[in-house]
Every structure is written in C-alpha cells, then in structure tokens.
Amino acid sequence: MRAVAFLALGFVLCTVASTGPSLHKKESYDIYNNTFKAVRRNGSLHLLWYSNELNRSLSKCLRSQLLEKTKHVSRRTFEVNEKPEQLGNSSLANTTISIFVKPAGQFATLVVKDDKGELQHPWTDEHQVLNATMRCFVLQAAVIQATPKWKSHCVVFG
After folding, report:
1. What is the model's pTM?
2. Contact in structure between 44 and 63 (CB atoms under 8 Å)
3. Does a structural domain hold residue 13?
4. Smallest Cα–Cα separation from 100: which of 116, 115, 112?
5. Is there a contact between 64 and 78 (Cβ–Cβ < 8 Å)?
6. Residue 117, in any domain of the structure
C-alpha cells in the first residue's frame, strides 16, 4: 500500500515538475505578444499609474500616439502634457520615439530609442515588462536596494 502511495506521489511530482516550465514559457510568450500588440495599436497610450517613489522624477501626464509600425518597430510620439512650471527641472521634450519589444527569457523587454536624443537616461534603458494585456503593460522602472531588501518601482501604460 505504501509503495503505491509513493509511486502515485512520484508520478504527481514528475507531472507537476514537467508542466512548470512550459506554463512559464507560455506566460512569457503571452506577455511578449500582448506588449507587442499594445505598443502597435492605433490610438494613444497614456501613463496610467506609477510607483509612489517615482513621484518626483516622473512627469504625471505622458501620452503617446502611433505614427507608424514596421515588422519590428513601433514609431510613436512621446508627449509631455504639463505646463512648463509644473515640469520643474525636467528637460523632457515632445519627441518621436521608436519602441522595440524583445522576448528575453522570463520577461519580455522594451527599449525606447529617441530620434533626437532628447530623452533622459531612465527612458532609454532596457526595461522588463512584468505583465501585459493587449491594451496595457507594466514596466519595471527601477530596482533599488531598500534596507533590508530590494524594491522594484513600476509604471503602467495603457
């Protein structure tokens, strides 16, 4: 009787272990696919939400309109919709960007290239896409070491 129980337990563990990576791979593929569709869809993308810790370093009203899509790139506007006095020290300007979405192991990544070179360093970094639907995606904006553990800051566009 115990041998049958151990055999059944072994079978269940092997089945669970073998389905884990394929489910994870499918989820990763879905995130990539959904992000790719979101940045290529007609209409505007808006900054919907951001981690509270990014309050001082992020413009509150960002918008992007689709200009053109090619096989691998989405060309969009990058617009800061704030009065100059609300921008403070920010030197963000309205510009045209190219967005590349790449599958990268566990997460998809998103890279923004600015045509004029006016976007500052955090925007042009490679960002992990933590989750996505066809209309919305969550980017990991920054990872900082907060005592006693690491903390991830995020932004949501949709």
Report:
1. 0.73
2. yes
3. no
4. 112
5. yes
6. yes
- Mean pLDDT over 121-134 rounds to 86
| CA–CA gap between residue 17 and residue 31 (Å, rounded) | 22
Does the N-terminal peptide bond of residue 148 adopt cis geometry, omega within 30 degrees of 0? yes
The burial class, CB within 10 Å (0-12 / 13-18 / 19+), for 99 is buried
CA proximity to 80, closest of 97, 101, 100: 97
Contact, 103 vs 76, CB < 8 A? no
What is the b/e burial string over 108-129, where b = at least 16 CB atoms within 10 angstroms of the residue's CB? bbbebebeeeebeeebeeebbb
Q: Which of 157, 119, 109 is nearest to 137 (CA)?
A: 157
For the chain, how many structural domains are there in total?
1
| Residue 116 resides in a domain | yes
Question: Is the pLDDT score of 28 beyond 90?
Answer: no
Residue 5 lies in a domain: no
73 against 57, higher pLDDT:
73
Q: How many CB atoms within 10 Å of residue 18? A: 9
CA dihedral 125, 82, 67, 31 (to 10 degrees): 50
Domain extent at residue 80: 44-157
